[in-house]
Amino acid sequence: MALTALTVILSVLCGFIGALFWALHRVNCFLYERKLGEKKLWLPPGDLGWPFIGNMWAFLRAFKSTNPDSFMSSFVSRFGQDGIYKAFMFGSPSVIVTTPDSCRKVLTDDEKFKPGWPISTVELIGRKSFIGISFEEHKRLRKLTSALVNGHEALSIYMRYIEEKVVSALERWSTLGEIEFLTELRKLTFRIIVHIFMGSQGEPDMEELEREYTSLNYGVRAMAINLPGFAYHRALKARKKLVAIFQRIMDGRREDKERNVARERKDMMDALMEVEDENGRKLTDEEIIDVLLMYLNAGHESSGHTIMWATILLQQHPEILQKAKEEQEEILKKRASSKKGLTLKDYRQMEYLSKVVDETLRVVTFSLVVFREAKSDANINGYIIPKGWKVLVWFRSVHFDPEIYPNPRAFDPSRWDDHTAKAGTFLPFGAGSRLCPGNDLAKLEISIFLHHFLLNYRLERVNPRCNVRHLPHPRPSDNCLARVRKL
């Protein structure tokens, strides 16, 4: 009798727990889908997850494992291969798009979609940076800054400085024994980008900038918990310090100008302080600081990580390394003996190395996703994306699609032979009007480093089989502990 009563109690308890779990799992649907009326019938398939956290635990669990793509694989296995799914990500009801066509539509349709980065990210990078402003403001700001970053004259000037720093760094690393290769690369690319944008800075300022940028970057992909001890809290404090540093430098330059103190070389900060649009309007201090914050963060993180992975992948594939090295040797042979240093003409002859860089960008997919927001109800592949919902353009799924890239996990620069990527199939720098404005500078920097590395150095990793971490960006857990050997 007692056993029967216990069985009944356990059955009721299990039923109650099951009903509670079902109800909790429906909270987000009730909050965000009910108000859509009949339009909810045309939402993509998917799962809005648990209240408040949505699908973020699943996302973080996957990207902290050895198989980050298990997150999207679970959507595909549960909801089919349409390549478009509803979810609740980064605090908002969202639609994830994973096919080239849907990615292209979202990235290029400025009438239907605007930047939709999480508020936490915008707070860190800046409301007046490219990720936080309207299409009209972006168009104006990009026009004012693009020539300063990617123009032919600008790249020619930057090239000499980049090469000088790369040669010096490689020589120094070869004398140090074991180093964290990624950490040293991030310092190198950071100092290069700071010089380009802000000129020469004193060592104390440079060290402080490096330290605060590291904290800022780790907070960009962290959960927005503004409490002591959390990455986002540290990142907000870092941003405040960076803003203060930039403002101090700008104020100093204005004082120098008033005293007619001449500067040896004008840099990006000078140009941004002086530039005017067709109506004579200058940029505000807030706009200048947010643009610099954005460029400096993106300009050293992506380049440093890509250089590291290109170096590792070349070492893992000796036949590819040898072919790339032979191309660089041939470029040196053709160059007049009176010329010293690389030129843009030399750079444009690096056809195979360019394929190596593109293949690295595809395999690594430094930025796994970009964020947009529907300005009005949008139709993608027969599904409705409601106004105000976020759209996550999932680059990883595109770059690892076997229909586009056979054997996609393989590092194979030859796949780019006589191959022009169709729209939406190769997205390392995004697409559309908001294509990364520093893409040409980044590829130039990566190629200059690889040119000198291939000719004169090799990398010996201490822990070649160590785990890879995927947040905030893919990197070996030991930051690529290695020795740089001079040949």
From TrEMBL:
One of its GO terms (molecular function) is iron ion binding. The keyword RNA-binding does not apply. Its cofactor is heme. Heme binds at residue 436. Keywords: Heme, Iron, Membrane, Metal-binding, Monooxygenase, Oxidoreductase, Transmembrane, Transmembrane helix. One of its GO terms (cellular component) is membrane. It is found in: Membrane. InterPro entries: Cyt_P450 (IPR001128), Cyt_P450_CS (IPR017972), Cyt_P450_E_grp-I (IPR002401), Cyt_P450_sf (IPR036396). Pathway: Hormone biosynthesis; Plant hormone biosynthesis; gibberellin biosynthesis. Its main location: membrane. The keyword Plastid does not apply. GO terms for biological process: brassinosteroid biosynthetic process; brassinosteroid homeostasis; gibberellin biosynthetic process; sterol metabolic process. It is a single-pass membrane protein. Catalyzes three successive oxidations of ent-kaurenoic acid giving gibberellin 12 (GA12), a key step in gibberellins (GAs) biosynthesis. GAs, which are involved many processes, including stem elongation, play a central role in plant development. Belongs to the cytochrome P450 family. This is Ent-kaurenoic acid oxidase. It comes from Trapa natans (Water chestnut).
